[in-house]
Every structure is written in structure tokens, then in C-alpha cells.
Automatic annotation (TrEMBL):
InterPro entries with a match to the protein in the record: AB_hydrolase_fold, TEII, Thioesterase
Gene3D superfamilies hit by this protein: alpha/beta hydrolase (3.40.50.1820)
Transmembrane residue ranges: none
Compositionally biased region (Low complexity): 288-301
Name of this chain's protein: Thioesterase domain-containing protein
Biased composition (Pro residues): 12-23
Thioesterase domain ranges (all copies): 31-250
Length: 301
């Protein structure tokens, strides 16, 4: 399940990046950019829109090709291309102060999005939050799938059963193969994206990093979550909650209250922000090495 690669993200000779600061005169709310799990879409965060602390607004990201009718999933040329699209999309949608949260596959996308912005000197988040995803240098499989070929080799029934066992698929859908085919097409595309991901050394994240995990997560271990420490240049926290892999959809797990506490403790609200220097530029970071990609609704990684 794990393919440990490079443990020290910062290449030799590369200085630690500067911590991000708020743009001058930022008086508006802080946007929480939310990236969903594999097989999902932006509706995973619909309950968050009115649940964040005062001064924060949720921005569920619509991945390219998602949130429309479930027909044929869009296949992306690769992780790097998807991250580039996201960067351009968010440059228009989120022009001011922001933090980023990624759930499962969304954490991988969030990590490489920040790396891309670091490389080009773009605006960085004030806080990086991840849930239910192994540290990038440890992530290597999902649902026991370690390659794109292995994804293609899984029949729909086996894939659906693995999803159900992980808590990502209602049991009643197993009896409706016509619905499953539509949903599983998107899941397969996202599984290919995750299976194709290969970590390459990258600078540490200069903002505070905090990760959440579920005590009963059958996919990601506590050790894999704690591995995120290797990617934090400064403040780091790891919080284990009483839930499974799909913490965003498990109200009893307490993810939302924990996230609210972390936001208010780490990110100053608009009323506390005065004029300050803009984001600093950091050295170049590598692009993720991968193969194919794509998007749609269901719960996976």
C-alpha cells in the first residue's frame, strides 16, 4: 500500500521558502478552498457553506469536467495538467486571502497546487489542511490499487465492493448496476490519477500544516498521516478523530468542529489584518510525475 520514496522534500542547496503573508489591506473574509475526494464533486462540502467561523467562507472547488450530468468522465492528460488548470481557475475565483483544505485525493491536488504556486511566485495559502491522505512521499495506492493497469483490471463489482467496505458507497447501489456504471467511471479516472502519482522531491510548505485522520480509516494509517511532518517547514499538527476515511461525510467524527478550531487559532480574521507585505517568491519546485486523470460524484479517496 505504501511506496516510500524521497523523505526529505527540500533539495540540497535550496533555501527554506519564506512564510506567506497577507496581501496589503486585506479586509474581506478568508476563503477556505476545499478540494474533494476521488469520485466526488464539490457537493461534498455543501454543509460547510454556513458552518465556518465568522470571517471565513467555504469555496468548494469544481474540478474541470465535474458537477455536470454524470455521463462520460473527462480524462485529463495528467496530474501536472490538472494542477495547472486548477491554478488558473482559482486565480480568478479566489483573488484574496485563503487557506486550503484537501480531503483524500484532494489533499494530493492541494499539495501540488501549492508547489506550483511556490514555483511561480504566486499567492500562497495562510494554512494548509489535509484529511485522510498519506504524506505525498508515502502515498502509493488507494483501495489496494497500485497502478493504472490494476485499475483497469478491476471489474465493476469488485471495485464497488471495495468502495462499500471503505465506507464510500451505499450498499443499496450494489443492486443497481446501471447506476454503478455511471458512478464507477468517474471513480476509475480518479483512481488512475492517484495510482499514477509518483512523488518527486519538493520544497517544504512554508505555511502551517495540519492534518486530520480517522481512527478507523481502512485506507490511510496514522503513520502515513504523521509523515506530512516531512513536508512542513514550520508549524505542524496531526489530529486523529473518531471516524473512518470519509470524515467530511461523517458528522459524528467531529472534523468540522476541529477544522473550525484550527482556522481560528492559526489564521487571523479580517478584523485582525492590516496592511502587510504581499506573498514572497520561493525557489522553483518540481512538477509531479504522473500519467492520466479525470473527475465526478461518489466517495473514494
Amino acid at each position: 500500500m505504501i511506496t516510500p520514496a524521497l523523505t526529505r522534500p527540500a533539495p540540497a542547496g535550496l533555501p527554506e521558502p519564506n512564510r506567506p503573508t497577507s496581501p496589503p489591506g486585506s479586509a474581506g473574509p478568508v476563503t477556505l478552498v476545499c478540494l474533494h475526494h476521488a469520485g466526488g464533486n464539490s457537493s461534498a462540502f455543501r454543509e460547510w457553506r454556513n458552518a465556518l467561523p465568522e470571517g471565513f467562507v467555504a469555496h468548494p472547488v469544481r474540478l474541470p469536467g465535474r458537477d455536470g450530468p454524470v455521463t462520460t468522465p473527462r480524462r485529463h492528460p495528467g496530474l501536472a495538467a490538472l494542477v495547472r488548470e486548477l491554478d488558473e481557475q482559482l486565480a480568478e475565483e479566489v483573488p484574496c486571502r485563503y487557506a486550503v483544505f484537501g480531503h483524500s485525493m484532494g489533499a494530493m491536488l492541494a499539495f501540488w497546487l501549492v508547489q506550483r504556486r511556490m514555483a511561480r511566485g504566486g499567492p500562497l495559502p495562510e494554512l494548509f489542511l489535509a484529511a485522510a491522505y498519506a504524506a505525498p512521499h508515502l502515498a502509493g495506492s488507494l483501495l489496494g490499487v497500485t497502478s493504472e493497469d490494476a485499475v483497469d483490471a478491476l471489474d465493476d463489482v469488485t471495485l464497488a465492493e471495495r468502495l462499500r467496505a471503505a465506507g464510500g458507497l451505499p450498499a443499496e447501489l450494489l443492486a443497481r448496476p446501471q447506476w454503478l456504471r455511471l458512478l464507477l467511471g468517474t471513480v476509475r479516472e480518479d483512481l488512475r490519477l492517484c495510482a499514477a502519482h509518483r512523488y518527486v522531491a519538493a520544497p517544504r510548505l512554508p505555511m502551517p500544516v495540519h492534518v486530520f485522520g480517522g481512527r478507523r480509516d481502512p485506507i490511510v494509517s496514522v503513520e502515513q498521516l504523521r509523515g506530512w511532518r516531512e513536508h512542513a517547514a514550520g508549524d505542524f499538527g496531526c489530529e486523529i478523530l473518531d471516524g473512518g476515511h470519509f470524515l467530511v461525510q461523517e458528522p459524528h467524527a467531529g472534523l468540522l468542529p476541529a477544522l473550525r478550531r484550527r482556522l481560528t487559532r492559526t489564521v487571523p480574521g479580517p478584523q485582525a489584518v492590516g496592511a502587510s507585505p504581499g506573498p514572497r517568491t520561493v525557489g522553483p519546485s518540481p512538477s509531479p510525475q504522473t500519467a492520466s486523470t479525470s473527475p465526478a460524484p461518489t466517495r473514494t479517496k
